[in-house]
């Protein structure tokens, strides 16, 4: 058990998360001279983009940019203006009062007037050998991000919900063929999404099936083995693309009971602002967004959260000035 120590002083802003949302919030609050303290996580510093190679859709990089390089640059830019980075996890929070407290894994309690939550969400995995190693080498969780790299390829999409249908339909723009693999005999997707997928000549379906094995050759995806869940029979599928669309898990366990979450666990904000149900607490990036989930949308909402935090702090200062002025005019 760590010894709990408390830092002196109260910060203007603490940011939890070091993905595009967290680093952008850090840049904006640092340039507003709010001296943000950023907790980036012990293992996952830089967020989801550090697990990919080429990013071709972040504006400003006509030749594309390596995911880890983009994140290092975002970090350096925020640090240049005074953001303080701590590569550690936050393990406990109390966000309910005027002064929020967050406790890091070393047991130190940090206090702030505002907190920006930008903890992202994790893609659900099949948990098969080679799945992680082949990320960006044939295995993907995001058609919008990677579809372009799969021209004229045979692709398999795993999942039966709206996201899987959307990914499959989108991928037909590039792919030669798309096989949707689903564990059940009926899809979970809405009827309109199902109809669109069924009507697409490039899409075929493997129902009652799951991926039993991911094949690898020269550090690239070289096919998958499908297993019929009813008969147990297996068969090879010669694909060079595997898109996994079985859902996401927003990282909100830490905030449950304090911040309002939707049924899927995403942080609820008063859109288009980033305000949560608690004054002084803001949510940004994929921890809020279950629809778009892109680096640029996460960065955009990180900016919004920073501006919301700035305005909240300015209003606090105004209120204090008025209270102080009222006190000084009271005659006894
Ligand atoms: C393989 C892959 C490829 C992708 N390719 C693209 C692409 O080409 N283009 C594109 O636009 N998007 C792409 N995306 C999506 C993009 O990465 C995400 O939309 C984006 O990173 C979300 O940013 P975020 O800041 O909300 O969260 P994340 O990037 O997920 O960052 C969350 C951060 O929170 C931190 N954290 C979590 N819990 C705690 C805690 N308790 N304490 C402290 N820190 C914590 C983590 O360490 C992490 O730093 C890709 C995603 C993946 C996985």
Instruction: Bin the helical content.
Output: 25-40%
Distance between the termini: 53 Å
Sheet having the most strands:
8 strands, mixed
> How are helices and strands ordered from N to C?
EEHEEEHEEEEEEHEHEHEEEEEEEH
User: Which radius of gyration do the C-alpha atoms yield?
Assistant: 23 Å
Strand segment count:
20
- β-strand amount: 25-35%
Helix and strand composition category: alpha/beta
What's the multimeric state?
single chain
Subunit structure: Homodimer.
Cofactor: FAD
Domain FAD/NAD(P)-binding: 12-302
GO molecular function: thioredoxin-disulfide reductase (NADPH) activity
Describe this structure in words.
Residues 12-302 form the FAD/NAD(P)-binding domain. Its cofactor is FAD. This protein has 332 residues and is α/β, with parallel strands linked by helices. It has helices at 20-31, 67-80, 143-146, 162-171, 191-198, 295-329, and strands spanning 5-6, 11-16, 37-39, 54-55, 65-66, 84-86, 90-94, 100-104, 108-117, 121-123, 139-140, 154-158, 177-181, 203-206, 209-217, 220-228, 234-237, 241-244, 248-250, 281-283. Helix content is 25%, strand content 27%. Strands 1, 2, 3, 6, 7, 8, 9 and 20 form an 8-stranded mixed β-sheet that branches. The chain has a 5-stranded parallel β-sheet with strand order 11-18-12-13-14, with helices on one face. Helix 1 (20-31) runs parallel beside helix 2 (67-80), helix 1 packs parallel to helix 6 (295-329) and helix 4 packs parallel to helix 5. The longest helix has 35 residues, at 295-329. It binds flavin-adenine dinucleotide (FAD). Flavin-adenine dinucleotide is lined by residues 16-22, 39-41, 44-45, 47-49, 51-52, 55, 57, 89-90, 118-120, 123, 135, 141-142, 145, 251, 254, 285-287, 293-296, 298.
């Amino acid at each position: 058990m760590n010894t709990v120590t408390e830092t002196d002083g109260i910060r203007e802003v603490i940011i939890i998360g070091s993905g595009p949302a967290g680093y952008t919030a850090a840049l904006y609050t640092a340039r507003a001279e709010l001296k943000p303290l950023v907790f980036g996580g012990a293992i996952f510093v830089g967020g989801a983009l550090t697990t990919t190679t080429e990013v071709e859709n972040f504006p400003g990089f006509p030749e594309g940019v390596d995911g880890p390089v983009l994140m290092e640059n975002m970090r350096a830019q925020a640090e240049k203006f005074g953001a303080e980075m701590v590569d550690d996890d936050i393990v406990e929070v109390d966000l309910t009062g005027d002064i929020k407290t967050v406790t890091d894994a070393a047991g130190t309690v940090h206090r702030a007037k505002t907190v920006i939550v930008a903890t992202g969400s994790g893609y659900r995995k099949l948990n098969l050998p080679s799945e992680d190693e082949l990320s960006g080498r044939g295995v993907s969780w995001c058609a919008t991000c990677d579809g372009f790299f799969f021209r004229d390829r045979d692709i398999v999409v795993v999942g039966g919900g709206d996201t899987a249908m959307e990914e499959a339909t989108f991928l037909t723009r590039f792919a030669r063929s798309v096989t949707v693999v689903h564990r059940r005999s009926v899809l979970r997707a809405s009827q309109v999404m199902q109809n669109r997928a069924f009507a697409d000549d490039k899409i075929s379906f493997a129902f009652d099936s799951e991926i039993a094995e991911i094949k690898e050759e020269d550090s690239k995806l070289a096919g998958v083995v499908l297993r019929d869940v009813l008969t147990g029979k297996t068969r090879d599928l010669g694909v060079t693309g595997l898109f996994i669309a079985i859902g996401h898990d927003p990282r909100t366990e830490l905030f449950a009971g304090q911040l309002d979450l939707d049924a899927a666990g995403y942080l609820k904000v008063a859109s288009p602002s980033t305000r949560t149900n608690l004054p002084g607490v803001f949510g940004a990036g994929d921890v809020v967004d279950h629809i778009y989930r892109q680096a640029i949308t996460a960065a955009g909402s990180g900016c919004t959260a920073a501006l919301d935090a700035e305005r909240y702090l300015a209003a606090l200062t105004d209120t204090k000035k008025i209270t102080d002025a009222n006190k000084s005019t009271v005659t006894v």
